[in-house]
Request: fold
Amino acid sequence: MKRDFLTLLDVSPSELAYLVQRAEDMKQQPKPGHCPLLGKSVGLLFEKASTRTRVSFEVGIYELGGQSIFLSPRDVHLSRGEPLSDTARVLSRYLSGLVVRTYSQETIEILAREADIPVINALTDLAHPCQALADLLTMKENVEDLAGTRVTYLGDGNNVANSLIIGCAMMGMHLTVACPEGYDPDPDFLDKGVRLAEESGGSVRMSRDPREASTGADFLYTDVWTSMGQEEESERRRKDFAPFQLNSERLSDAGGRAKILHCLPAHRGEEITDDVIDHPQSVIFDQAENRLHTQKALLEWIIE
Reply:
């Protein structure tokens, strides 16, 4: 029976812990001859532009012995009105898996429902579960135990925040999401995160005070204030989010010891300052690298 990875809710806490541990093992002890995707082809259907997601998936598929086939909207008949269901059924006849980066969560859910092959969410407007895998691995590399770790997310309650909520909750971590009113995470993800955290011994809470939220944090995390498709809102968003910038003051609030996270690309000088993104305690580029290792673990698990 095929598995899909559309949100972190598609895996159990134990499966999530396995994927993070497996990624760490693959990173620390690479095995060049390990080719679980040998003879397999994986499609990359991307409606949104990408640097890290596309390159990390293509390299990961290659390193696992498979081949990737990149498909933009102009490369397939979706742009000419072919139903998603037909596309999913046809691609299932050729491919061993499908990685999708799109706008609507509904799009990827239709593809997953109609496809006979595993479908992986490489980003939708609702969720970014592959990013959360890399986030958890990066934090695991910097603490003795994820359980009990304090994480503060500053800024827009977007797809990254939604997935981070579920990931931290499953791992027994304490997450504070600080954002201005009107930019909260998806309420369903937030409610499920609160319940999962209660079961794991962690916590998920909201804050309107970036200073209070940052106090005592082990990790400070932010993302862009204006995502793709929101460009017309950029001026208003810059004004609304200005107090939530990740800067030296927030680092000081955390006691000067917090590690810095950002999923990239960063708008330097907006959601994060140069001195913080390039700070010795920044693990942002480790975080970017870890997209490769966690996606390899995911591909091995979900396709093999």
In short: The longest helix spans residues 284-303. Residues 142-282 form a domain with the Rossmann fold fold (CATH 3.40.50.1370).
